[in-house]
Amino acid sequence: MNTIRTLRMTAPTHTVLEGGGFPVRRPSAMGTLMSPFLLLDEMGPVHWDPGQAIGAPAHPHRGFETVTYMLQGAMKHEDSAGNKGDLNPGDVQWMTAGRGIIHSELPQDDFLEQGGVTHGFQIWVNLPSKDKMMNPRYQDIPSQEIPKVTSEDGKVWANVIAGSTLGVQAVIDTVIPITYIHMKIQQDGSHRQVIEKGLNGMIYVFGGTVHIDGKPVQDGQLGILTDGDEVVFEAREEDAEFLILAGPELNEPIARYGPFVMNTREEIQQALQDYQNGTLA
Ligand code: FE
């Protein structure tokens, strides 16, 4: 018999200013309940006047992956491995920092000049100890290559960034098994999602309210699921829009300092030293 996942708890978000004034909504750290996710930032939505948009100039990362998913706006990125690209609405950049990368994430020139709305997500996915020093890897996936699917009754829509839903498999290759789905459910619609037993499962709601086992998770809340084989999402009195995230519990110590996430303090000191010596990336 399949066991149904229920809602274990919800966590509120707080708004913080990242990188010199970029407003993000960030769920309270749930520690190992969020494993393997280290961070989930909803960037904006924020309206920039002409000339005002900001991003993150060159900075390093080691030991994990940063995944950027744009809904609105226009960013550009460039890194020390020679990768370069634009991020427009619907595009995803899955950047595996591994041993080390230095990159910048900035508004595109036209966007900066004209102003506009930026909205999107950046999540940090931890790497297991054995993969932390892997070669950096970079997957830049334009919106049109990310599989989209609508349910038979037309009430459920999904953008399948990683993992699978409604019989559709993502195209992005992940180091550890990750589910990352952007889903919309219309009022009175529901969806049954398989999340393999043993994986940590959670949702982040950024529009409306979704019910899990009769309990609401509202706009701006992270909902942590119990273990089980599958979960049923229902949109009752309003439409719901949310991210589904799942992945394995890594069960390893986390040593974290700014843009470096390793297992021990010594490894963090090594990362800082490598960065200072210019040998990180
Ligand atoms: Fe970064």
Brief account:
With 281 residues, the protein is mainly beta.
Structure report:
By secondary structure, the protein is mainly beta. It has a single domain, classed as Sandwich (Jelly Rolls). The chain is built from two helices and 24 strands. The chain has helices at about 110-115, 265-275, and strands spanning about 5-20, 20-25, 35-50, 55-60, 65-70, 75-80, 85, 90-95, 100-105, 115-125, 135-140, 150, 155-160, 165, 170, 180-185, 190-195, 200-210, 215-220, 220-225, 230-235, 240-245, 255, 260. The strands form four sheets. It has a 16-stranded antiparallel beta sheet that branches. Strand 6 (about 75-80) and strand 7 form a beta hairpin. The longest helix is centred in the last third of the chain and has 13 residues, at about 265-275. The radius of gyration is 19 Å and the shape is globular. The structure holds fe (iii) ion.
